[in-house]
Every structure is written in structure tokens, then in C-alpha cells.
Specification:
By secondary structure, the protein is of the alpha/beta class. It folds into 2 domains: 2-214, Rossmann fold; 230-264, no CATH class. Helices cover 29% and strands 24% of the residues. It contains 7 helices and 12 strands. The strands form 3 sheets. It has a 7-stranded parallel beta sheet, with helices on both faces. Strands 8-9-10 form a 3-stranded antiparallel beta sheet, with no helix packed on it. It is globular, with a radius of gyration of 23 Å.
Length: 264
């Protein structure tokens, strides 16, 4: 079984400051990039399926700049057998991204394509769009994953229970962040990842160009703004008397206009 995992580089917001009037940082290097945490659950799911289905392989693919190499090497360090990068870093709506990824996926034959449940823009559209373009069945937010011959089954948790879904492979599945706990990398695998050759595909290799991509519609973001943060007063009560402290706290909350319900 050949498994493909689509992963994405995202900005490490702990190491990068974005100006208020900018969409992205003006300058970034590989230290400012991290793997989308949701994608690690997709990798873990792929590796578990590989371990339980003899002869299986896992390939990681990402679209982005050279900085994405660090993310792909991390995927190999986790256990992926190989990786490749699509050299394209311009901003595109989901339809455009899905078109590029579909062309890249079509260069090989995969039985199962896994993704994280959501990317950094939060649309969750990519796996569904790819499935539509490739005419593959798809399952979203899978919590349990199981292969049985040419069939794939997954449980999707809902309020009050779970739905069991079964489809025929090849198929596309987005993995829920509650599905597993991603493994840590070993020193041995990190060394393997550093030596791994990662092929790069251009738009020309995929028989695409900027003009064809610009004609693809889809959801567009007109602006990204920081939310207004309202500063609240911090109430600190110092007392050794519990009843006195509770009484004073309730009094201050009441003064602040908080609805105390049955507490008066």
C-alpha cells in the first residue's frame, strides 16, 4: 500500500513578529517555520498503517518555499520513507492550491492520501477539493483508521457517539487531532532525514502556469486583522479567612456588573 501524507509549513508565531499592516513577516528563514501540528497526526496515522500493513510505504509532500525542506525532513525523521516539495510559495485560494496538489499527486499512484484536519487558514477545504478533482471518495475528521483489503474504514466522532464510514480505495482522509499522539523523532531517524534527497517539482513539471492558476476561482481573503483585546481589571484578594475572601470576591464581581445568578 502506498500512502501519501500532505503536510504544510506554517509560521512559528512564537519566533516571528508580524507587523499590524502586513499579512506575513517580511523576512523568514527555516527557524521561523514549523510543521502544521495537525499534520503530525496524519503522519502518525500513516506510520501506524504502514506498521500494520506489510510492504506499505509513506511519502510526505509539501508545497512551499525552500523553508519547507525543514518540515519535510522532520516528516522523514518521524518515519516517512521519502518526501518531495512543490516549489510554489505565492498566496492562492484553496481552489488553486488544490489544483497544484492534484497535478502533483497524479504523477504517482497512491492508495491512500492523508491530511491534517485543518491548515493555518482554517478552511479545511483542500482534501475535499482534491477528492472532487480526482473523483476519490473522502472522509473528514477521522479518529480511527483501518484498512481491509481494498477498503478503508474510519470512525468519525460526533456528539453522543460515532459514525462508522467505509469507502473503497484510493481515497482521501483528513485525520482528527484526537486520533493519536504523534511520535517523537529518534537521533537515528534525524540523521537519515538529513541525508535524504528531496525532489522538487516546479509548475512547469506539473504542466501548470501562473495564467491558468489566476483563472481559478475560490475563497479569497481580503484582509487579516488582529482582534481588539479588551484589558480587564485583575482582582486580587489577600486574606486568611475563606468566608471573608469569598464575600469580598462576590462583592467586587457584583460591582463589576457580573451576573452572579443565585449568589448574592
Amino acid at each position: 500500500m502506498k500512502i501519501l501524507v500532505l503536510i504544510k509549513e506554517i509560521i512559528n508565531t512564537l519566533s516571528v513578529d508580524v507587523e499590524e499592516d502586513e499579512w506575513l513577516p517580511k523576512e523568514m528563514d527555516s527557524d521561523d517555520i514549523m510543521m502544521n501540528p495537525n499534520d503530525k497526526h496524519a503522519i502518525e496515522a500513516a506510520l501506524v498503517l504502514k506498521e500494520t500493513n506489510e510492504g506499505s510505504t509513506v511519502h510526505a509532500m509539501s508545497m512551499g518555499s525552500e523553508n519547507a525542506l525543514s518540515v519535510l525532513r522532520e516528516a522523514v525523521a518521524m518515519g516517512c520513507d521519502s518526501a518531495s516539495r512543490i516549489d510554489y510559495e505565492e498566496f492562492l485560494p484553496s481552489e488553486g492550491k488544490a489544483e497544484i496538489l492534484t497535478k502533483a499527486i497524479s504523477k504517482d499512484s497512491y492508495d491512500l492520501i492523508l491530511t491534517g484536519m485543518v491548515g493555518d487558514f482554517g478552511s479545511s477545504q483542500i482534501p475535499v477539493l482534491i477528492a472532487s478533482k480526482m473523483n476519490f471518495p473522502h472522509i473528514t475528521y477521522a479518529n480511527t483508521l483501518e484498512v481491509d483489503g481494498n477498503s478503508f474504514a474510519a470512525d468519525r466522532y460526533i456528539e453522543g457517539g460515532a459514525i462508522k464510514i467505509k469507502v473503497t480505495m484510493p481515497c482521501i482522509v483528513s485525520v482528527a487531532s484526537t486520533a493519536n499522539e504523534p511520535r517523537y523523532t529518534s537521533v537515528k531517524r534525524i540523521l537519515v532525514a538529513k541525508r535524504t534527497q528531496i525532489p522538487v517539482f516546479s509548475l512547469d513539471d506539473l504542466e501548470l502556469d501562473e495564467d491558468s492558476l489566476s483563472n481559478i476561482g475560490g475563497l479569497e481573503f481580503s484582509a487579516i486583522e488582529k482582534p481588539d483585546i479588551e484589558e480587564k481589571e485583575i482582582i486580587k484578594i489577600e486574606t486568611d479567612d475563606l468566608e471573608e475572601g469569598v464575600s469580598e470576591l462576590l462583592s467586587k464581581l457584583k460591582e463589576s456588573g457580573v451576573d452572579l445568578g443565585g449568589f448574592k
